[in-house]
Amino acid sequence: MRFQRLDLNLLVALNILLEERSVSLAADRLCLSQSATSSALGRLRDYFEDDLLVLKGRQMILTSRAEELIDPVRAVLEQIRSTIAVAPEFEPETCDRQIRIMASDYSTEVLLADVLARMEVAAPLMRFEIQTMSGKPIDSLERGMIDLLVSVDFALSSDHPSETLWEDGYVIVGDANNPHLKSPIGADAYFDLRHVTTRFGRSRVPAFEDWFLRRQKRIRKIDVVAPTFLSVPGLLMGTSRIATMHRKLAERLCRNLPLAWCEVPFDIPPIREAVQWHVTNRNDFAIQWMIGQLRTTAQDLYGTSHTSNESAHGKLAVEFQAHQQLD
Asked: Around 124, how many Cα atoms within 13 Å sit in the side-chain half-sphere?
């Protein structure tokens, strides 16, 4: 079908080419050969009288015209899907769909692992891709590279809907034979001990606990900086080092590894983990069903999330966001 010389079938190909910025990756998603996808790109170039994607080094980048088309093309396809196409009744048992989720290894361990274990029975044909946290997770959501983002609530965007899933605090973790954990650790001892902390990416963005403690007037002795939350236990075992870790993660790890934990000797504000989805996916039944599974599993595991000090949390959130942008 054509509209003003444009083959409307090409809109789907254009949307995916703009998202993937790669002919081979777009071909995989379209279930077409690379030659067929290249042919579609050629016809799109002829229609728009623009190259759309150009090779720069080893990567393809979008032209200015292509950048302008991202939101309008996505909006047109969403309008067709939500208002014209007849949506079949969603049946998770027969749904053959891939859901892409961006989440930290902490979120994967304390929630997603349980959710996906349930999915093996509830939705056996569905497939899942968990992507590590990028430096610009909201950009990945808006470009359609992921379907869901699971992250701390103050890292999310106000432009898209979100829902809080659980709240977590912090504890001290160390080797099960670490003598410092045989009795409660006081504040002075805490700062005198040697620590393992976590920072992410090339810019070495700190985890919330690391950033919060760096704001205090006393400085920790950092022995090791780890690249992920789940790499910390191996850096604690067999040493006298300690780490300040999410309570829910610590409880899980201590059940399966020779680790022990105790309370932090001062207050660290809790973090709230939430899920966010693109505003255009509000009527996507598969994604909304998946959000429901995240919600139900979080409630089963941790109960209803609540916040004891909203104003203090909000102020810290703004400060943390500003710090990340400066880094």
From this structure: 3
Cα separation of 123 and 49, whole Å?
Answer: 44
Type of residue numbered 94 = T
Q: What's the pTM?
A: 0.71
- Strand-pairing partners, residue 60, are 55
Could you tell me the fold of the domain covering 98-167+271-326? D-Maltodextrin-Binding Protein; domain 2 (3.40.190)
* 213-261 pLDDT per residue, tens: 877 777 889 999 999 999 999 999 999 999 999 999 999 999 999 999 9
Report residue 304: phi and psi, to 5°.
-75, 130
Tell me the two tokens of residue 4: 């003003």
- Sequence spans of domains, the chain: 2-84, 98-167+271-326, 170-263
Nearest to 220 by CA among 233, 230, 206, 234: 206
- Please tell me the total number of residues recorded for the chain in this structure: 327
